[in-house]
Amino acid sequence: MLNIPDSKYKRIVIIGAGFAGLNLAKQLRNKPYQVVLLDRNNFHQFQPLFYQVAMAGLEPSSITFPLRKIFQSCNNVLIRVAELEGISPDTKRIQTNQGEIYYDHLVLAMGATTNFFGNENIKQHAFPLKSVSESLALRNSIFEDYEFALLEEDYQRRQGFIDIVIVGGGPTGVELAGALAEMKSHILPKDYKELDSAEVDIYLVQGADRLLKGMSNKAGDAAKKYLESMGVNLIFNTYVVDCDGTHATLKGGEKIHANKVIWAAGITCYKIPGLPEDCYERGNRIKVNAKLGIEAYPDISVLGDQAYTTEEAFPQGHPQVAQVAIQQGKYLAKQFLKPSTASFKYKDLGSMATIGRNKAVVDLPNVKFKGFFAWLLWLFVHIRSLIGRKNKLFVFINWMWNYVTYDQSLRLIIKPANRSSQSKKGTEV
Amino acid sequence: MLNIPDSKYKRIVIIGAGFAGLNLAKQLRNKPYQVVLLDRNNFHQFQPLFYQVAMAGLEPSSITFPLRKIFQSCNNVLIRVAELEGISPDTKRIQTNQGEIYYDHLVLAMGATTNFFGNENIKQHAFPLKSVSESLALRNSIFEDYEFALLEEDYQRRQGFIDIVIVGGGPTGVELAGALAEMKSHILPKDYKELDSAEVDIYLVQGADRLLKGMSNKAGDAAKKYLESMGVNLIFNTYVVDCDGTHATLKGGEKIHANKVIWAAGITCYKIPGLPEDCYERGNRIKVNAKLGIEAYPDISVLGDQAYTTEEAFPQGHPQVAQVAIQQGKYLAKQFLKPSTASFKYKDLGSMATIGRNKAVVDLPNVKFKGFFAWLLWLFVHIRSLIGRKNKLFVFINWMWNYVTYDQSLRLIIKPANRSSQSKKGTEV
Questions:
Q1: Which of B283, B300, B316, B261 is nearest to B128 (CA)?
Q2: Above 0.90 for ipTM, yes or no?
Q3: Is B246 in contact with A193 (Cβ distance < 8 A)?
Q4: Is B65 helix (H, G, I), strand (E, B) or coil?
Q5: Structure pTM?
Q6: Which residues of A, range 199-228, sit inside 8 Å of B by Cβ?
Q7: Domains identified in chain A and CATH numbers
Q8: pLDDT at B405
Q9: Cβ of residue A350 closer than 8 Å to a chain B Cβ
C-alpha cells in the first residue's frame, strides 16, 4: 500500500526524483498541493558525475542526497520508494509495485535508461552507467579485474582483464576515457608495479566521425587531441555490434580482446503500460505540447529526458540534458502556482565536458574555449550544482586532494553483504 | 595462480590485513624479506567504527583504506586478494582459492568472525557486524525497513519494521544502541514525520548482569544510565535463543516482535584445514607460545584475535581487541628484524566506548571517567588511529557536522548493480 492520506488539496503525483521531478517538487514545498514524489531510490543522484564514482574519484554519497532530508521542512511532500508499473489515464490512477493511487495531476519525470539497441549479449555483458549503483558495479569490476590480472599467468588472458573498450563518444564516453587514461598513467604504476601499465589499452569507439556531437566542432576536435595525447585509441565511424565478456566485435567483424565493455552509446525512455502507442516519439520519448502536457490527457505532464517537445530553435526536440530537465521542472511548478499561457522556452546555458587534469572543453552561447580555465569553470559549475553543503565541501576537498597528490584513496572493492531486505521477506511469511 | 615471483629473500606469508597483519607488514616495508600479504579484500578496515557506517554516520571509504596505497613506496610487499583454504605445515605450503604457495614463515592474522553458537536460524536472519560489507547491509536494511513501515497499514506489522533488537552488551552493542536511540530522537521525527517515533522500540539483550564486561564496573554502570536515559530497553541476564525474521525469542520463551535482530553477542575464530585439532583453544583461538609461535610448527606464528597466549597479567589469554593485535604485529616484526629472546608483553593502554553525543566512558590504567571529556578523548583517539590523512579529515568534518546539525546526509540505500565479476566469468568460459 502506498498509504497516502486524504487531503483537502489537489494531489500531484511525480514519478522520478531526477533533475526534473526534484526541481518541480522543491518549488511546491509548503504550497497548497499534496505532492507525492515516487522514486525507486530514497535519494536524488547527480548524473553528470557518475563517471567519477566509477573511476574511484568520488564517493557515491558525495553525489547523491537523501530525498527525505531535502523535504524535512515541509509537510505537503510525501516520499515513497516505489516503481511505476502502469497508468490508467481514464480513471486517473497509477499502479506501482507498492499499490495503486489516485492522482489529480500526474507528472512523468522518469528520465531515460541505457539503450542496448535490442542486443541481449551487450545487455548482459556490457557495463552501463545510468545510475550510481551501476557506477559502483563498474568501479568494483575495474579493480577486481586488475587483481585478477595479477593472478593470471597467460599473457592474452591478462590483457583481457586490463584492456577496456568504451562505446560512445558523447560526454560520458569522453570523460570516462580521460579518467581511465589518467588512472593508467598516475595510479597503475604505483598500485600495480607488477603489471606493465604500458600494456593497458583503452579504446573509445564512436559511431560518428567526431567526438561530442552535442557540442561544437571546436570542442570535439579539442577532446580528440586531448585523448590522443593521453594515449586513448580512438576508433571513429564504427559501432560495437556484439560483446561476450572477452571480446568486443566491431561492425566490420574486427574483434578487440577486452573483457570489459562500457556502454555509453545511447539512451532510451521507458514504455509505460496504459499509455497508447501513439504517445511515443523516437527513443520512446513522450510527445507533449508547448506546455509540457500530453495532448490527449490534460492531467498528465512529462518532463526532462522523457518529454519530447519542439520549439523553433529545437525542431528535433530538446537535448536530453540536465539543464532542460531543471528548467522544465521549474516551468511546470510556475504553471501550478500561477498558471499562464506562456509556453516552455529552453534557455541554453551552454555545455561542457572534462577530459582530465587541466583539460576541459566549454561551449558557452557566445564563446567556446578549452584548457585550464575551461577545467576550472567545469569544477565550479559542478560543485555549485551539487545538493548539500557537505557534499559541495567533500567534492571540493576530494578534487583538490586529487589535484595535489595525483592519487585518491577510494580504490575500494566494497559490496554490501547479501543480507538486506531479509526482514521484508520475514514479514511476508 | 597466486603468481608470486621467486626472490633471494625469505618469504613471509601473512594471512589477513587487519590490525595485526597490517602493522606487521608495514614494519617490514623495504626490509630484506619477501612479504606476501593475503586478504579477501583489497582494503584494510577499521573495525571500531563499523557501527557508525551501519548507523549512516560515516561512509565506508572513511574507515577503510586501499592496501595497495599503503604499500606504494616499497617493492618487497606483494598483495593478493585471496582466501586461505588450508595449510600443509609439513611441506610449508598454503592453499588458497587462487592457488597454492610456499612459505618460509607463515603468519596467521585472520581475526575472528561472528559466533552464532551453531544456531542456523540466527545465522540466517540476524545481522552481524564484523565487516564493512555487513555494516552497509545493516544500514540498507534499517532504512529500507523505515520505508516499508510507511507502506504498511497494519499496526503490528509496522512495529515489526521499526523495532530493533540488539544482542550483546559489549562495546558494539552499546555503541549501536546509543546511535539508534539518537537516530530515533533526532532523525526520525524530521525524516519520517508520518511515523510516530515514540513507537520505535530499541532493545538491548545482554547475557550478563551488566554492560561492557571488558571494562570497569563504573563504565558499565555509566553506560547503563546513559542508555536508559536515551530510552533503550535493557534486558539483562538473558539470551536470545532464536529469531525468524519477525520475532526474537528469549531464553525464557518470551518473544519480542522485531524483524531485525543485530547480533553482537560473540566471536569465534576460523578453523583451518590442515592444522591439527589440538592447536585450538576456546573460541577456536590457536595456542601459541610467549613468542607467538605454534609450539609444534616453529614456522607458523599467530597474531591478534586468532592467537591464544597467556601472561601473568592475562591468565585467560589476552582480550580480543585492536591494541593487542597492533602490539603483536609490531612485536613479531621486531623478531624478524632483530630476533631476541623477549616474550610478547601486552601493554594495556585502556579502553573506551561511546554511547552518544557528549556521552562516553573511558577506563585508563590509572583513571576512569565519563561524559564530555571522555567523549572528546574517544573522538581524538579514533581519528588518530585511522589510516590516511584524508580519512582523518573527512571523519573529523563528518563528526563536527553531525555535532552542529544533529543530522547527517548519509541515509542512502545504495547497492552496486548486480554486474561485477562478469568479465571473470567471461574468461573462465
A1: B261
A2: yes
A3: no
A4: strand
A5: 0.95
A6: none
A7: 10-112+269-337 (3.50.50.60), 120-266 (3.50.50.100)
A8: 87
A9: no
